[in-house]
Specification:
The chain is α/β, with parallel strands linked by helices. It contains 13 helices and 25 strands.
Length: 502
């Protein structure tokens, strides 16, 4: 059964304060006040223990032997020349949550490398945590990482809305937290678009306002990107250079495809241009002949970096499945061959090369890599990447899938009032993310989508297909559930691929 507490919903207030003498010291102080309340907490009681959720918290603790508790992700835009190094808690106020007999919070789930579908076993309790009645976690907020996205410097923090006392079973909610983010001058040289069209610039600003919690600071810390009209930098003819350049018009939308599928995407490019998005189609073979790189993927990424900086490209469509436009194998968990992930995030990021140690494995993370090294992979997107998964066993099948994809897009975008009428229902899919589900659950992201999309029609029914654990498991297949699908996970490859081109 589930239980919710009734309180007034808290809010979040974020203020960026620049210290005096910023030009000389480059020291900035980011101050935030975060509120939670008991009505945001839901507890589901089960034999294995109490499953606790907090509205808006998409992450959970991951360490073996730790209590399984929710975490709130906070992103703050900060000055480009400021490197956050520490968090100072000014004030933290907690209130108890009541429960007859106390709470019994189980540990995080135990990785099972041999059988990634088996995620039912809990990790052994850490005696340093469960053997004492000290609060877990000990601090309500921690600095996670910083990076550049679309030219903005974004710091990510993890805020813990609850703290748990394992011996007594007490639990408290963080009702108010005020903290300061301190740091020092940074010498980092961010990659950013030198120019954008007015339409692309507005889209980037809207996107950044959605992902950071202090969107009022975006204007102050925006990169020096020049906004241009579609008549080009000097007001000349409406021309587009064949390859990235500061001459001619900005290019909002780029389609990267194969020679085979080039003509199949021309109709889509013409439609995007008619909508006001300057669009260009380039081929993989053309990129390979012009750009350096250790393989085709790196050559494509180097082209995209140029498109971002010189054209101000905001959207890129990879026109074809991986047999037409290759993906990057991401060694997210090196040493575990079954955990190599296929990713297009590689193409969306501009910093570094995802292979700092120079071996044949891209995206290695030292947390999992062991002796394989650290690649300093950039996970902060600088460009929106999508893929039209048109491919197949022969050329005819690939062309047919490309035509089908383009026709679907055109039918949807050209239909009057298409947004509410085209989507009679919504299917959410989710599986494990991370090593056997211990890092992050796709189900949690799907629930965020279900509960957090602003403007989503309230009368649209939502179906859920989560695996392997779910409070709302729905065994229906996508054809029975609807024609808009969100998938977050790395286990249900077959089902996800079938949906994308069906």
């Amino acid at each position: 059964m589930s239980r919710r507490w009734s309180r007034v919903l808290g809010n979040v207030c974020l203020v960026v304060v620049l210290a005096l003498g910023l030009a000389a010291t480059a020291h900035a102080e980011v101050r935030a006040t975060v509120n939670f309340s008991a009505d945001q907490v839901t507890v589901t009681h089960a034999a294995a223990g109490d499953r606790v959720k907090v509205d808006g918290c998409r992450l959970r603790t991951t360490g073996p032997g730790q209590p399984d508790l929710p975490i709130r992700l906070y992103r703050l835009v900060v000055p480009a020349d400021f490197e956050p190094t520490d968090v100072h808690i000014v004030r933290a106020t907690f209130e108890p949550l009541e429960s007859l007999g106390g709470f019994q919070i189980p540990t995080t789930r135990l990785p099972n490398i041999d059988d990634p579908w088996d995620m039912t076993e809990l990790s052994a309790p850490d005696p340093e945590i469960y053997g004492r009645d000290a609060p877990f976690p000990s601090e309500p907020v921690q600095l996670s990482r910083s990076g550049f996205s679309f030219g903005y410097h974004v710091s990510t923090l993890l805020v813990h809305p609850l703290r748990y006392y394992p011996v007594s079973g007490r639990m408290e909610v963080l009702t108010e937290l005020e903290f300061e983010l301190g740091g020092a001058r940074s010498t980092a040289q961010p990659v950013y678009a030198l120019r954008r069209s007015a339409r692309s610039a507005a889209a980037v600003e809207r996107y950044m306002a959605r992902i950071v919690d202090n969107d009022e600071a975006l204007a102050a810390y925006a990169p020096p990107t020049r906004v241009e009209s579609m008549n080009g930098r000097t007001g000349g003819a409406r021309t587009t250079q064949p390859w990235p350049s500061l001459a001619g018009m900005p290019v909002d939308f780029v389609i990267i495809t194969s020679d085979l599928l080039y003509e199949r995407f021309e109709l889509l490019a013409e439609w995007k241009i008619a909508k006001g998005l300057n669009t260009k189609i380039v081929t993989v073979s053309g990129i390979v002949s012009r750009y350096p790189g250790v393989d085709t993927q790196e050559r494509i990424r180097n082209f995209i970096i140029d498109a971002d900086q010189l054209w101000g490209t905001t959207w890129i469509l990879l026109g074809g499945d991986v047999d037409q436009v290759p993906h990057r194998d991401w060694w997210s968990y090196p040493g575990v061959e079954s955990r190599i992930a296929a990713t297009d995030l590689y193409y969306s990021t501009m910093e570094g090369n995802w292979n700092a140690d120079g071996d044949d494995r891209f995206g290695e993370d030292s947390h999992y890599a062991g002796n394989h090294g650290e690649d300093e992979a950039d996970y902060d997107p600088d460009i929106h990447i999508g893929r039209a998964p048109a491919g197949g066993t022969d050329e005819g099948e690939a062309e047919a899938e490309a035509v089908r994809f383009v026709n679907k897009v055109l039918d949807y975008e050209k239909a009057p009032n298409s947004y509410p009428s085209y989507i009679p229902s919504f299917l959410l899919m989710g599986s494990s993310l991370g090593p056997c589900g211990t890092d992050y659950w796709g189900q949690d992201t799907s629930e965020y989508v279900a509960n957090g999309i602003s403007g989503w029609p309230g009368d649209v029914p939502i179906h859920k297909l989560y695996y392997p654990i779910s409070d709302d498991y729905n065994p229906k297949y996508p054809t029975e559930c609807g024609n808009y699908v969100e998938f977050c996970g790395d286990e249900l490859w077959t089902e996800a691929n079938a949906i994308s081109t069906g």
